[in-house]
């Protein structure tokens, strides 16, 4: 007799073999980012880029919310589950831009005359800082990808495959707009609670041609990163299926 799998097909639980390795990589990358920044501060006696730590902490928040949502989907049912998904989904959407926002911190290198293409390029510190900023940016993109993947699976589970991919496209460009509000308008996720009128004014200010261009640019970045990493998951599934067929 074959054993029946009680889990809903396409649920986040079915992809635990994907979530776990990426999560461990994220933890390791986070530790590496903090360590490299600490080494820099120790040798130069300067905490110049300390803001990266705060931004990295904020980038972890949407993943934490997404993991809570996955847990709620496994253990809750009925109206309680619907309410939980509504609250957690809203919180995640507000926090999500903090993850891709880390990529915009590269502007601190681009806009710094110390890093202009001249004799300074021979300094190891220049390249060290470049690696540090790249690792922080990459960690932010991975955090955004994994948290979005959790909600993609939840939407697909309850609303179907088409709704799942529509969700990804919409959230990608909403995330791009959120990055614009954070970097250019200087809004924060918690402004929705503590400064709602400032948030409304900021959103209105962001609805111009510059905001549209920025949103399109970063929305495409978020979407391409998600599609690229998702395609790697697809290749892994094909390889696993081929190995299983050979073993039969």
From TrEMBL:
Source domain of life: Bacteria
Stretch forming the signal peptide: none
Alphabetically ordered keywords of this record: Membrane, Transmembrane, Transmembrane helix
Keyword NADP found: no
InterPro entries linked to this entry: DUF1361
Transmembrane parts of this sequence: 21-39, 51-73, 80-99, 125-146, 158-181, 211-229
Name of this chain's protein: DUF1361 domain-containing protein
């Amino acid at each position: 007799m074959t054993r029946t799998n009680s889990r809903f097909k396409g649920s986040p639980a079915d992809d635990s073999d994907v979530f776990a390795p990426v999560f461990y990589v994220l933890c390791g990358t986070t530790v590496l980012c903090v360590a490299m920044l600490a080494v820099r501060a120790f040798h130069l006696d300067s905490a110049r880029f300390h803001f990266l730590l705060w931004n990295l902490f904020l980038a972890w928040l949407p993943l934490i919310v997404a993991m809570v949502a996955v847990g709620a989907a496994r253990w809750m049912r009925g109206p309680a589950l619907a309410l939980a998904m509504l609250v957690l989904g809203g919180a995640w959407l507000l926090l999500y831009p903090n993850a891709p926002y880390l990529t915009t911190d590269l502007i601190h290198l681009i806009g710094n005359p110390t890093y202009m293409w001249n004799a300074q390029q021979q300094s190891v510190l220049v390249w060290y800082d470049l690696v540090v900023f790249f690792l922080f940016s990459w960690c932010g993109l991975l955090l955004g990808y994994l948290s979005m993947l959790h909600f993609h699976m939840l939407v697909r589970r309850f609303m179907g495959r088409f709704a799942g991919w529509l969700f990804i496209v919409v959230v990608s460009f909403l995330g791009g707009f959120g990055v614009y509000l954070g970097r250019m308008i200087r809004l924060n996720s918690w402004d929705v609670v503590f400064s709602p009128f400032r948030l409304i004014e900021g959103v209105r200010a962001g609805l111009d041609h510059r905001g549209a261009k920025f949103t399109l640019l970063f929305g495409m970045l978020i979407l391409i990163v998600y599609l690229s990493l998702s395609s790697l998951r697809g290749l892994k599934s094909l390889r696993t299926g081929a190995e299983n067929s050979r073993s039969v």
